[in-house]
Amino acid sequence: MKFMLLDIIVSCQFIHILFISCIDVHADMDTPLFRARPDPEDTSVLTLQHRHRSSTIRVDPDMGSVLTCRHRMLREWVLDDRVRPYIIQSGFYVFHRVGHVKVDWPLITALVERWRLETHTFHMPVGEMTITLQDVAILFGLRVHGHPVTGSTDIDWHALCEELLGVRPAETNIRGAFLTVRFITTHFSRLPPGVVDEVTLQHHARAYLLLLVSGSLFTDKKGVYIQLAILPMLRDFGETAQYSWGSATLAHLYRELCRASLDSAESIAGPLHLLQV
């Protein structure tokens, strides 16, 4: 589906070039061949057009700025072979192997301008299309059925980090239900030298998964903090694999696309590499 989407985008760009050429050639004629509209002609379904990014582009094409975001990727974290079995058991090994994907911000912005909040689909000149659960399952290898990814945030996060990660964060490392990325990279980017017991290996596996999931799937826009809400779901690696991470990932992507499609948005977060892989 992704290859089809990119092919269509390239085709649409080519058609757009041809269209501009036609308009230039026939500029001196009384009646143009046809007229392009960046916004929908019929707003009976697309009722939020007045708040959509495309509405500002119609007024002034130069008003549409390119969206950006600071994404926290595991570029320099080498996964130790002793930790790998826990990542496999958790069900995230396929997603781990996807690796770092450089975000093409102009492409993402162009797609966001075609995204509609009302239908959760991209409105292309050739029709509607969207990202599906099947895409998430095939591209990321994430489970799309099972336990819902939800839980309580009324937790003593300092105590939970000490229990599941083996290190108690300082007050400056936690803000609400968010943990600084620096805390994870400082304490867990490498295993201690010598023989390492199983408990320590599990601590490092949870830290890696916490940064992998929160930093790549459920990202924030600053790239400084990661969500601790998923940490309780990493207690038992076998149970971790039973959660519907794919459904939560797709829902998060939809929400971020909807937010970014508003005319006031300047940035976008979420698993944007789903739009490129």
From TrEMBL:
Keywords: Signal
Organism lineage string: Eukaryota, Viridiplantae, Streptophyta, Embryophyta, Tracheophyta
Signal peptide region: 1-27
Species: Vitis vinifera (Grape)
Record domain Aminotransferase-like plant mobile: where: 91-277
One Pfam entry name: PMD
Domain of life: Eukaryota
The keyword Signal appears for this protein: yes
Record's keyword annotation contains Signal: yes
Protein's recorded name: Aminotransferase-like plant mobile domain-containing protein
